[in-house]
Structures are given as structure tokens and as C-alpha cells.
Specification:
The chain is α+β, with helices and mostly antiparallel strands. It has two domains: 43 residues, no CATH class; 102 residues, His-Me finger endonucleases (His-Me finger endonuclease fold, 3-Layer(aba) Sandwich), CATH 3.40.1800.10. Helices cover 46% and strands 13% of the residues. It has five helices and six strands. The strands form three sheets. It has a two-stranded antiparallel sheet. It has a two-stranded antiparallel ribbon with strand order 3-4. It is elongated and about 80 Å long. The N and C termini lie far apart (76 Å). The model has no long low-confidence stretch (mean pLDDT 89).
């Protein structure tokens, strides 16, 4: 087995302990373990700066996504949200869906899939429900009739 000395920890290690540089067709001179330690230390030192940049970028990303998908800006989204008092346009409840990062999701932008016109903001439950009915008023009316049946 081939070995190499890590220039950071000065230990001789197997080549599999080093990342491979495809562009240069060589191995890094610092082992994977030392690189990981370096990244953790750097992240701890720069945490506040990263967090501030991340929050700024999230706003820019959300603005770009809204513009690309629905043709509205973040300001327009917030205006609709304010007009709806921060609740779902159908059930009148706040969003309860929790994202993988532990934060509550934003209300979803509901739009006509044919015209692209925005109808309002919905909680994830109502948004998924409309999607399951394929935005078809007849299906929705059938569901309403079914619920109103006397059993």
C-alpha cells in the first residue's frame, strides 16, 4: 500500500486517507481528518459572519424563486400575506408544517396552473388538498356533496 505524509499532522498515512485531485491527477498533501478539523475550526471562528450572509442570501434566493416561479417579488408576497392577516386563504389557519431545519414553512403561493394568475397563499394542507383535486371545481363539489350527505 502506498503512503504519504500529511504536512499538517506530520503523520504517514495511506493514500486512501487523502482526497484525490482529479485536475492535477495527484493527492492533497493534507489528510481528510486534518481538513475536517480545519473546516470545523474555521466555521466556529466565522459563524456570525456566515449566519449574517446566509440570512441575506435566503432573502435574495426567496425573491428569485418567487419571481421565477410565480412572477412576483418578495414584497408582493408579503403584501398578499398581510392582506390575508398571515393565515391561509382557505382554512384561515397559520402554517403548521415544520421544515427539516425546525422552522415553520411559509405559506404556499397558490396559482392557476393554466393562466399563472395568483389566487392567494395557502397552508401546506390546503395546498396539497387542492392539488389532489387537480384544481377541478367538479371534483371539489363532489367532495362537498359527499361530506354533506346524511348517513
Amino acid at each position: 500500500m502506498k503512503t504519504q505524509i500529511c504536512i499538517h499532522c506530520n503523520q504517514e498515512k495511506l493514500l486512501s486517507d487523502f482526497s484525490f485531485r482529479e485536475k492535477r491527477n495527484t493527492y492533497y498533501t493534507i489528510c481528510k481528518k486534518c481538513i475536517k478539523i480545519y473546516h470545523i475550526k474555521w466555521y466556529k471562528q466565522n459563524y456570525l459572519r456566515i449566519k449574517k450572509l446566509h440570512q441575506k442570501n435566503l432573502k435574495q434566493i426567496k425573491n428569485c424563486v418567487l419571481k421565477k416561479r410565480f412572477g412576483i417579488t418578495l414584497e408582493q408576497f408579503n403584501q398578499i400575506l398581510e392582506e390575508q392577516n398571515g393565515v391561509c386563504a382557505i382554512c384561515g389557519q397559520e402554517e403548521t408544517r415544520i421544515q427539516h431545519n425546525g422552522k415553520i414553512s411559509a405559506l404556499a403561493v397558490d396559482h392557476n396552473h393554466v393562466t399563472g394568475q395568483i389566487r392567494g397563499l395557502l397552508c401546506s394542507g390546503c395546498n396539497v388538498s387542492l392539488g389532489r383535486f387537480k384544481d377541478n371545481p367538479k371534483f371539489l363539489q363532489n367532495a362537498l356533496n359527499y361530506l354533506l350527505r346524511k348517513t
